[in-house]
Amino acid sequence: MAYFAAILEMQDESKNLTYRPHHLEYLEQLGNEGKVFAKGPFGDGSGGMVIYIADNVEEAKQLAENDPYVQEGVRKLDLREWKLQLVQA
Question: 48-62, pLDDT tens digit by residue?
Fold first, then answer.
């Protein structure tokens, strides 16, 4: 199991509200399957990020590319493996 950061940079803001419900539904479904660690928009409105949990980069790429935001050209995908290190307080 590995973590992958899908950085979703805004590409076509005019489509954002149209596809937002589909994007959120997709992520909720994957979350229920244990495939999403975290998600959320950037504070400046430039896009957002999803942290996927996958066995390998191929699986993570498939999950990220099937996001309606990516498929419909709303957001540009930049996918990177994330070496998560939890900090104990």
Answer: 999 999 999 999 999
Distance of CA 69 to the CA centre of its chain: 9
Q: Are 35 and 19 a contacting pair, CB within 8 Å?
A: no
- pLDDT number for residue 13: 94
What is the DSSP secondary structure assignment for residue 14, as one 8-state letter?
A: G
From the CA atom positions of the chain, what is the Rg in Å?
A: 13
Q: So what's the pLDDT on residue 54? A: 98
- Could you tell me the CA-to-CA distances from 17 to 8, 22, 58, 78 in Å, in that order? 15, 10, 29, 21
Return the structure tokens found at 41.
């928009």
Placement of tokens 């950085």 in the chain? 7
